[in-house]
Amino acid sequence: MTIETCSKLAASQGFPLFGLEYGYECFAGYSYAYSPSPSTGCNMNCEGNNSEICGGGNAISVYTASSFRFAGCFSDDANSRVLPNLIGNSVGMTVEACAQLARVWGFSMFGLEAGKECWAGNAYEYYPKSSDQCVAACTGQNGQLCGGWGSISVYYV
To answer: What is the distance between the alpha carbons of residues 116 and 147, in angstroms, rounded to a whole number?
Structure first.
């Protein structure tokens, strides 16, 4: 278990909070079961990544989950953008980084294109046409897909 793995599990089920305990247990929920208090007991390394801390014995490391949902892959071009606002263009782009930019700017949707472009809006600018060309690796994390050339991966925040 890693922090990222637990975060993805929680987000995929729509939970805004997640926590890790005993180095390998992942918990998620909508709210705290009781008022949390600081603990010095979060001292166990994550089994999946020894550089991360995943709680401890009777102590849980609590985080906010990435809460975004994939809407689809769509054709996109300069004359009919699916989402109208370019809010990021970085060689370090990831899905999470684009989601964070969209939240900061107050948008409810975001999309990634060409591996490094982050687009956003509150509604589709044009009715999107489905595409199967979202195959470009994110420049900030090769294991993630960030649209394609002429195709955009769209998410809801």
So the answer is: 9
Residue segments in the chain with a per-residue pLDDT below the cut of 70 = 14, 35-37, 65-67
> How far is the C-alpha of 136 from the C-alpha of 133, rounded, in Å?
8
State the Cα angle at 39 between 36 and 43, rounded to 5°: 130
> Kindly report the CA angle at 118 between 1 and 83, in degrees rounded to 5?
120
**CB-based burial label for 93 (10 Å; 0-12, 13-18, 19+):** buried
In this prediction, residue 17 carries a pLDDT of 79
Per the CB < 8 A criterion, the answer to whether 44 and 22 are in contact is yes
Q: H or E stretch including 151? A: strand 151-156
Q: Judge contact between 3 and 65, C-beta under 8 A.
A: no
Reduced to 3 DSSP states, what percent helix, strand and coil does the chain have, rounded to the nearest 5? 15, 40, 45
Q: Give 1-31 pLDDT, tens digit per residue.
A: 988 888 888 877 767 778 899 999 999 887 7
**Cα gap 18→128, rounded to integer Å:** 33
* CA–CA distances in Å: residue 46 to residues 13, 15, 83, 143: 22, 21, 38, 20
Q: Give residue 37's pLDDT.
A: 67
